[in-house]
């Protein structure tokens, strides 16, 4: 699910005017750099653990004698875990603090990884992947919040972006490492266990590194621990800035508390319900683009189109490269294009490339020629998806909801998104087996068209509007009069 | 003596507010305005011409609007009447989201005055 980070608007924009002295230079900036490096290991793990099946699955499947359906289950169990991890991770981080939660998640990453590596059979592996998924989902909810809260307001966006790049970078790293391991040690029994074991390195780095990182000052203030918050700020800001920032952080902590106000009964308000339906639709359709069928099953797709395993696993690296390139472009475009234009262009391109993939499977005879043509259209699909719909979905989710229901509404949307991720992961292999590439990608193309229509009809424009203005307009149009 | 009103983000919420203002003015009392919408009331949304205390809903403790209102009523012993806007609800709607008005009527420690729009 690439860029998996609910970006809170209150985190990314300084909502009130606090005149603050410069962040400082030297030590505090250096310290902040270390914190960001350590915390984004969480993003890297997210990427690696979701991407590693792409390449590990074939030897794994042979070892355990998996069917298409049970292959799907091995992959999807992580996403189901992540759905729950994402919803409950935020709650734990509010109660225990960001730092302790990330330490806990690092522990779960380690246990989950060891469980997968040592799994005696498919059932155990499915359970261990669920546990690993809890950590992946938890990291997706906690790491960006921690980064956003500890970074100075003028740099919040770039710190959160860095985590998103690490997620996609983690997937690419998994593809490359799998290709290297498979091509050099492919003859070794159960080679997939070694592929999965690599994730232990960043997990340990996250655990050990986080022990030495401070708690989020904003969380400390939300707990009334102002002295400790000031002590943390003094480590990561110039002394003058640290003193000056306490007021801003106190204000932001109070705003955060309001985000948990709204709940189920507020969905009785028509315009709020409409926004939640739009948000859930964004998560639903983002996953039905099939982006993750490429990220999880890219190698298998290329093999079934006619490449040798060793070559397919190398060719799959292109998917990771174009994913990273796409995300980088997307991050840039976010601030340039109106949201609706970017979304609709994205879904249109996705529909086109899926159609081309479906046609390739009919027109080009199976063999290397078909496989390379499929790969060309796959990377174009990945690039257009990650350059538009991928990052934009998360941004949009962070800006459409009224502040007082954001926590609840985002929870619903992120849960829907992960569950759809799991459903695509579960059913992609059996669909390919039963219907073939043409029908499966034809279906993805059709879903992209439906997404296009849904968004064209429902999606409001939010770019360059502040939240209050957007809310007023939306309420005037869709509220009950 | 004082009148309380629960204002939801809906036509019946706005009607309840109007009726409560009239009620408080008739009785010559103040008004406790419990704002159940998702935005904090601005100055121009607060009725003038009488003494109004505004309570905005805020934080996880106020997630359930019924709890939010009952808590305020127990903090404000001077309130002796709650004004509430009601409307007809479909069975399905009530099953899924429940009825805030019904629960408030059943749990309110003070008498409840319900108002509804004509023809609804």
UniProtKB/TrEMBL annotation, chain A:
<feature type="transmembrane region" description="Helical">
    <location>
        <begin position="370"/>
        <end position="396"/>
    </location>
</feature>
<feature type="transmembrane region" description="Helical">
    <location>
        <begin position="68"/>
        <end position="90"/>
    </location>
</feature>
<protein>
    <submittedName>
        <fullName>MFS transporter</fullName>
    </submittedName>
</protein>
<dbReference type="InterPro" id="IPR036259">
    <property type="entry name" value="MFS_trans_sf"/>
</dbReference>
<feature type="transmembrane region" description="Helical">
    <location>
        <begin position="102"/>
        <end position="120"/>
    </location>
</feature>
<feature type="transmembrane region" description="Helical">
    <location>
        <begin position="311"/>
        <end position="334"/>
    </location>
</feature>
<keyword id="KW-0813">Transport</keyword>
<feature type="transmembrane region" description="Helical">
    <location>
        <begin position="408"/>
        <end position="428"/>
    </location>
</feature>
<feature type="transmembrane region" description="Helical">
    <location>
        <begin position="271"/>
        <end position="291"/>
    </location>
</feature>
<dbReference type="InterPro" id="IPR020846">
    <property type="entry name" value="MFS_dom"/>
</dbReference>
<dbReference type="GO" id="GO:0022857">
    <property type="term" value="F:transmembrane transporter activity"/>
</dbReference>
<dbReference type="InterPro" id="IPR050814">
    <property type="entry name" value="Myo-inositol_Transporter"/>
</dbReference>
<dbReference type="InterPro" id="IPR005829">
    <property type="entry name" value="Sugar_transporter_CS"/>
</dbReference>
<dbReference type="Pfam" id="PF00083">
    <property type="entry name" value="Sugar_tr"/>
</dbReference>
<keyword id="KW-1133">Transmembrane helix</keyword>
<feature type="transmembrane region" description="Helical">
    <location>
        <begin position="126"/>
        <end position="147"/>
    </location>
</feature>
<feature type="transmembrane region" description="Helical">
    <location>
        <begin position="341"/>
        <end position="364"/>
    </location>
</feature>
<comment type="similarity">
    <text>Belongs to the major facilitator superfamily. Sugar transporter (TC 2.A.1.1) family.</text>
</comment>
<dbReference type="GO" id="GO:0005886">
    <property type="term" value="C:plasma membrane"/>
</dbReference>
<feature type="domain" description="Major facilitator superfamily (MFS) profile">
    <location>
        <begin position="35"/>
        <end position="463"/>
    </location>
</feature>
<feature type="transmembrane region" description="Helical">
    <location>
        <begin position="167"/>
        <end position="185"/>
    </location>
</feature>
<keyword id="KW-1003">Cell membrane</keyword>
Automatic annotation (TrEMBL), chain B:
<protein>
    <submittedName>
        <fullName>Universal stress protein</fullName>
    </submittedName>
</protein>
<dbReference type="GO" id="GO:0005524">
    <property type="term" value="F:ATP binding"/>
</dbReference>
<keyword id="KW-0547">Nucleotide-binding</keyword>
<comment type="similarity">
    <text>Belongs to the universal stress protein A family.</text>
</comment>
<dbReference type="Pfam" id="PF00582">
    <property type="entry name" value="Usp"/>
</dbReference>
<feature type="domain" description="UspA">
    <location>
        <begin position="65"/>
        <end position="116"/>
    </location>
</feature>
<dbReference type="InterPro" id="IPR006016">
    <property type="entry name" value="UspA"/>
</dbReference>
<keyword id="KW-0067">ATP-binding</keyword>
<dbReference type="InterPro" id="IPR006015">
    <property type="entry name" value="Universal_stress_UspA"/>
</dbReference>
């Amino acid at each position: 699910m690439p860029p998996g980070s609910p970006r809170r608007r209150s985190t990314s924009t300084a909502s009130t005017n606090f005149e603050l002295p410069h962040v400082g230079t030297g030590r505090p900036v250096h310290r902040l750099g270390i914190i960001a490096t350590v915390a984004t290991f969480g993003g890297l793990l997210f990427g690696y653990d979701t991407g590693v099946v792409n390449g590990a699955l074939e030897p794994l499947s042979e070892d355990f004698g998996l069917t298409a359906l049970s292959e799907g289950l091995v992959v999807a169990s992580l996403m189901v875990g992540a759905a729950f991890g994402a919803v409950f991770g935020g709650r734990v981080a509010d109660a225990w603090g960001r730092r302790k939660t990330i330490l806990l998640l690092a522990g779960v990453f380690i246990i989950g990884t060891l469980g997968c590596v040592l799994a005696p059979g498919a059932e155990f592996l499915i359970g261990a992947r669920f546990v690993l998924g809890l950590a992946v989902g938890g990291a997706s909810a906690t790491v960006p919040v921690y980064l956003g809260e500890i970074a100075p307001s003028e740099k919040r966006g770039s710190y959160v972006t860095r985590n998103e790049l690490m997620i996609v970078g983690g997937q690419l790293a998994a593809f490359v490492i799998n290709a290297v391991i498979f091509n050099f040690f492919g003859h070794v029994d159960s080679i997939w266990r070694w592929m999965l074991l690599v994730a232990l390195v960043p997990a340990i780095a996250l655990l050990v590194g986080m022990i030495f990182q401070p708690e989020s000052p904003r969380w400390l203030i939300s707990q009334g621990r102002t002295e400790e918050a000031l002590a943390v700020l003094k480590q990561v800001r110039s002394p003058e800035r640290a003193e000056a920032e306490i007021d801003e952080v106190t204000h932001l902590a109070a705003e955060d508390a309001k985000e948990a106000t709204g709940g189920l009964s507020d969905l009785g308000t028509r315009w709020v319900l409409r926004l939640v339906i739009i948000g859930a639709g964004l998560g639903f359709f983002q996953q039905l683009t099939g982006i993750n069928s490429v990220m999880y099953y890219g190698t298998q797709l290329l093999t079934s189109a006619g490449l040798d395993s060793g070559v397919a696993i190398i060719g799959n690296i292109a998917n990771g490269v174009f994913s990273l390139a796409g995300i980088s472009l997307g991050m840039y475009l976010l601030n340039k294009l109106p949201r609706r234009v970017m979304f609709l262009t994205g879904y249109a391109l996705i529909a086109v490339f899926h159609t081309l993939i479906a046609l390739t499977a009919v027109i080009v005879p199976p063999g290397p020629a078909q496989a390379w043509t499929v790969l060309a259209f796959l990377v174009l699909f990945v690039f257009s998806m990650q350059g538009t719909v991928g990052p934009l979905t998360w941004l949009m989710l962070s800006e459409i909801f009224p502040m007082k229901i954001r926590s609840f509404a985002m929870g619903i949307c992120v849960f829907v998104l992960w569950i759809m991720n799991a459903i695509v992961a579960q059913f992609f292999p059996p669909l390919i087996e039963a219907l073939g590439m043409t029908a499966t990608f034809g279906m993805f193309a059709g879903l992209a068209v439906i997404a296009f229509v849904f968004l064209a009809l429902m999606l409001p424009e939010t770019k360059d509007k502040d939240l209050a203005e957007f809310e007023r307009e939306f309420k005037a149009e869709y509220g009950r009069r | 003596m004082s009148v309380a009103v629960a204002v939801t983000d809906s036509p019946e919420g706005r009607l309840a507010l109007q009726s409560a203002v009239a009620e408080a003015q008739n009785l010559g009392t103040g008004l406790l305005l419990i704002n159940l919408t998702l935005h904090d009331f601005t100055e121009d949304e607060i009725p003038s011409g009488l003494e109004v205390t505004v309570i905005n809903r805020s934080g996880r403790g106020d997630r359930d609007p019924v709890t939010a209102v009952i808590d305020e009523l127990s903090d404000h012993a001077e309130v002796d009447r709650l004004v509430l806007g009601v409307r007809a609800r479909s069975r399905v709607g009530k099953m899924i989201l429940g009825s805030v008005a019904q629960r408030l009527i059943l749990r309110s420690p003070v008498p409840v005055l319900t108002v509804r729009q004509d023809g609804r």
